[in-house]
Amino acid sequence: MSASLRALRNTFIKDASASASAALSIPETEVERPFKIVVIGGTGAGKSTLLNALIGEAVLLPTNCMRACTSTIVELSYLTEACVGETYVATIEYLSPEEWAAQLDAMCRTIALARKTFLEQCRINKTEDDKKENNWLIAGTPASDAVVRLRSVYGHSMEESIMTADAITLHCHPRVLKVLSCQKIQLAAASAPELSLKLTKEIDPENQSINGTHWPLIKRVSIQGPWATLMGGLHLIDAPGLHDDNMARADVVRCFLREADAILLVSTIKRAANDKTTKDLMPLEFRRGLLSSGRLGQLAFVATQTDELVPSEIRRNLHLANSTSPIECAVARNTYTKHRLTEDFFRGVEMGLLPINREGGGAFGSFQFPVF
């Protein structure tokens, strides 16, 4: 565990202990309100590893269930009550039949429109591309994304209905209807590995490529465990990002962001300073809103995978001497990343020009965007 991550975890534990001690003198209605930290980052940002480190687990979510982990909202909290032998509890909440029906209709319309537009273009241009199977399906388009998601849900056994946007047939699929009718499923286990195995069986059943899987139908997952870090009422919420193509989940993410007491933006240190995804995590209106609403201190950035470095590459990129040691290279990269992220945070934000936010300005000195 890196020094920065260790410091972040120690801060969480210290705050959790303080919250637990202070809870004795707080009215019951206030104790029941959790302190929510939303963790946002793109695929491969290392959010799961970060969260596992913060709560002290080697593995919590199934390793062969990465699609569900990266595209599903996961809320972690302390388990206050449990049955004997059950110290880990997970609640899986599925989309309602109405929510999935609306999304299915929208995806089928997108697929049908893309196919129709392609065939009309072929007719106008008098080409024979329309004779090539699925030549209209262009990767990265809304229609392609819809096909990928429907294949994940229904499997390749329903390929014809998916490619022809046969919403009526898809609506009547018995397995999907059965899953959606459950609404919520609760799993309990005596250990994190045992719970991980149960989640795998529930979310990623066998023969998923043929019969389909459940994970695209999941709205959110709540997991409770015996984690001292969260004992004081802290909730960690692993969000899939600000641009989830699942409308119901995107609405839940926006709701969590509105209710969040703090937000952690996560990206690998290699991408943190330059990657477009990182900048997308801090859009201008989002930063202006934080500043104008007085929530400046409720946002922090976590750069992950800091233990992965190539000294020669860092020396070249940061114009360091060839004699610079690996440790000095790591420190220089950390300093550079913090500086760039702080610059990006205040870019275009008028309040960043106020004296309180300038070096040496005001009684509070300068504000440094927290980067771990």
Automatic annotation (TrEMBL):
Task: Give one Pfam family, short name only.
Answer: Dynamin_N
Dynamin N-terminal domain: residues covered: 37-278
SUPFAM superfamilies, sorted = P-loop containing nucleoside triphosphate hydrolases
Instruction: Note the InterPro entries from the entry.
Output: Dynamin_N (IPR045063), P-loop_NTPase (IPR027417)
Q: Which PANTHER family match?
A: NUCLEAR GTPASE, GERMINAL CENTER-ASSOCIATED, TANDEM DUPLICATE 3
Q: What is this protein called?
A: Dynamin N-terminal domain-containing protein
Q: Which organism is it from?
A: Corethron hystrix
The beginning of the lineage is: Eukaryota, Sar, Stramenopiles, Ochrophyta, Bacillariophyta
